[in-house]
Amino acid sequence: MTYRVGIDVGGTFTDFAMLKGGQVILHKNLSTPEDRSVGVMNGLAALAGKEGLDLADFLGQCDAIVHGTTVADNTLIEMNGALTGLITTEGFRDEIEYRRGFKEDIWDVRLEPPKQITPRRRRLTVPERMLHDGTVHKALDDAAVREACRRLAKQGVQSVAVSLLFSFVNPAHEKRVAEIVAEEMPGVQVSVSHQVLPRSPEYDRTSTTVVNAYVAPRVTSYLESLVTRLKGAGYRRQMMVMQASGGVMTKEYIAGSPIRVLASGPAGGVVGSAHVGAAKGHPNLLCVDMGGTSYDMSLVLNGAAPAEAGWNMHHRYLIGVPMVKVETLGAGGGSICHVNGGALQVGPASAGSEPGPICYGRGGTRPTVTDALVMLGILSTDEGFAGGSFRLTRAGVEEAFAEIGAALGCSAEAAAFDCWRVVNANMSQGVRRTTAGKGIAPQDLVMLAYGGNGPAFAGIQAEDLGIGRVLVPKASPTFSALGTLVANPSIDEERSCIAKADALDLSKLKALWAELAGRAERYFADAGFRTDQVVANYQMNMRYAGQNFALTFDVRADGRLHDLDFIDATLGERAVALFNERHMAEYNHIREFETPEVIGVRLASHVATASPPVAAGFDAPRARPTPAKTRRANLGRGFQVTDVFQGGDLKPGHEIAGPAIIDETFTTIVVYPGWRAVVDDAGDYELNRV
After folding, report:
1. 548 and 635: one domain?
2. Which of 544, 550, 549, 541 lies closest to 512, judged by CA?
3. Which end of the chain, C or N, has fewer beta carbons within 10 A?
4. CA nearest 251: which of 262, 236, 238, 267?
5. Under 8 Å CB-to-CB from 409, ≥6 apart: which residues?
6. 117 and 55 fall within a common domain
């Protein structure tokens, strides 16, 4: 017997999905913030125990371990990354704060600027200048670089970002700066922009490099620790790491740009959602993932969630690497409820797993969303929580909400209900911002809810948004972990090349694509894949003159590495036609008498691997199951005696009318008043408004 294990490390829980033949086995345990690799190894040991194996034998039978994590995301949410400095070209010190004039809400006069990862005292410039064609206009001043390093070292800087003008054309100066930083500041992490994001414009590249420097020490140390533990425990294959692009790749590839794991956990959920939605006949989805620390929302349209490179604003910083679009809020089960200036607020600060919510009984003293669910009777203290790993307690919970109630002039139960309302409103507003920005009406989508807390809020949130159908997979508590097993090994990179479409330098384009193909070939080979297994999509980034943003399209889809025979004298003409087609689809117009310009080339390559099977259908006869028990709960319309069903007792065809609660092993599904839940032939849930 062989196994494939998907892992998603969150701020509160670490989730596991193990594929054993066609069977999916779930597991969940608390994350270990002091060293998250410990929580991963604890979970693997638990899975081994379920199979009657010791850890070494189990790991020896694992064909693949695929890993996604929100370590980078939680670092940005909580702003507790490495003390970071920036070395940049003289005259460009403050570009990171100008943000290309961007403001999230131009009408909000009270909106504060984002907290600076590199405040001005840690942003230093050096005399040097590279021109747009790669020629040196002003030589690099080595002495100035050394002085900048000494100033950063005095401030205790742990990670340095280097972003010099036009380094993506000629990286010589950046490479020299990196050498000097290594000499003057030994042991400090260095991120250079020509490796992190080798393209223009300057702000995009600098912002991406600064964030990479900020999260890199935490991400790399964690991955190194985990790989060391896995090898020591008997795992002999390469661990694959989930990327923000929706693909997976080796730790060695990720080491060059750790920022590629940003939102990798949520990306796994989106990839899994697209897979499940397509199998069940729902190609257009609103995917919502509420875990212990954060709430992630994304869209699947026409059965796909393509990675986009460009204007990816993430935690108020621009991330230019390819990313599946995921919007993240600090709204999870561990989000802390508090009164600020007379107003009730929920999040973004989180209790995490240590000490965790008060109801965990681990020393937490500040009430959270999970505590509110206990107060409302949605979560029970009678059975084991998170798969029976521990039991929730009400000790201290009511007292904490009584303090909030005293500040608001209401009872403890009313305060808990208000916290439930506020966090739901925060999530619904986040969805509205996301869908409105894309011109999409939420009511035209099917919601797919997952994460440990997603199914508890899905029905009421869908009702707020006008959505009439919600899918809750049986594997929803660890769905992002399962999604990592759906994702293919992939590499998505680009290079800058600026030219009019009717004046292309074909030899230069060929050299750039050949370089990208060579990198992909090398890393895929290191991961154990043959060149003939790799599918290559050769792409171009183009725009009309004066446009700020480019569109990406395939010029050769489903090709092979080093298969460059499509580069010929007709390439420019074909590229213009493809660009105009994409522009019309995106913006509903084209500039017929203008020649667009190429600003870069891209190679998106992957190896197709087997995905977990997904079944669908409602052929089983309908039946109404008998509730296992009842409990007093408030599902939005006041406290009342509510039917409670055990998920393990439910079979395909079972139908449950709200109000009701379904206790699954690792999650709780709430069937709100006016909703009906049906178990499909695969054992997954579909909730519909009556």
Report:
1. no
2. 541
3. N
4. 238
5. none
6. no
Token couple for 101: 């004039």
8-25 pLDDT, tens digit per residue, is 887 778 889 999 887 888
549 in any annotated domain: yes
**Phi and psi of 180, rounded to 5°?**
-70, -40
Average of per-residue pLDDT values in the chain: 92
**Token pair for residue 470?**
């919600």
Could you tell me if 81 and 70 lie in one domain?
no
Answer for the pair 448, 471: CB distance below 8 angstroms, yes or no.
yes
pLDDT digits 0-9 by tens, 374-399: 999 999 888 767 666 678 899 999 99
Whole-number Å distance between alpha carbons of 616 and 149: 60
What local confidence, expressed as pLDDT, does residue 58 receive?
A: 95
CATH, residue 536: 3.30.1490
Q: Which residues share a beta bridge with 366?
A: none
One domain for residues 123 and 248: no
Q: How many structural domains is the chain composed of?
A: 4
Of the candidates 369, 278, 287, the residue with the CA atom closest to the CA atom of residue 325: 287
Summarize the confidence of residues 422-432 as an average pLDDT: 92
Compute and round to an integer the Cα radius of gyration of the chain: 26
Instruction: Report the b/e string of 123-149 with b at 16+ CB within 10 A.
Output: bbbbebbbeeeeeeeeebeeebbeebb
In terms of domains, do 67 and 131 share one?
no
Q: Are strands 390-391 and 384-385 parallel, antiparallel or unpaired?
A: antiparallel
Tokens of 240: 């694959």
Nearest to 668 by CA among 353, 280, 336, 376: 376
pLDDT at residue 79 is higher than 80: yes
In a domain, residue 584? The reply is yes
Per DSSP, helices labelled H in 234-261 are 251-254
Instruction: Report the amino acid identity of residue 154.
Output: K
* Residue 493, H or E segment: strand 490-500
- For residue 53, the domain's CATH number is 3.30.420.40
The SS3 assignment for 416 reads helix
The range of the structural domain enclosing residue 50 comes to: 3-74+220-257
In 3D space, the residue among 542, 535, 573 whose CA is nearest the CA of residue 556 turns out to be: 535
Quick check: is 203 in a domain?
Answer: yes
Classify residue 79 as left (phi > 0), alpha (psi -120 to 50) or beta. Answer: left
Q: Give yes or no: residues 602 and 683 share one domain.
A: no
The encoded tokens of residue 249 equal: 């790749």
Query: Are 7 and 70 members of one domain?
Result: yes
Residue with tokens 């033949």: 21
Give the residue among 370, 426, 385, 458 at the shortest CA–CA distance from 636.
Answer: 458
The span from the CA of 148 to the CA of 184, in Å, is 10
Q: Using 50, 70 and 90 to split pLDDT, how confident is the model at 28?
A: confident
Whether residue 353 is contained in a domain is answered as no
Sorted by sequence, the CB contacts under 8 Å of residue 390 that are 6+ apart come out as 360, 361, 384
User: Residue 184: how many CB atoms within 10 A of its CB?
Assistant: 17
136 and 249 both lie in a single domain: no
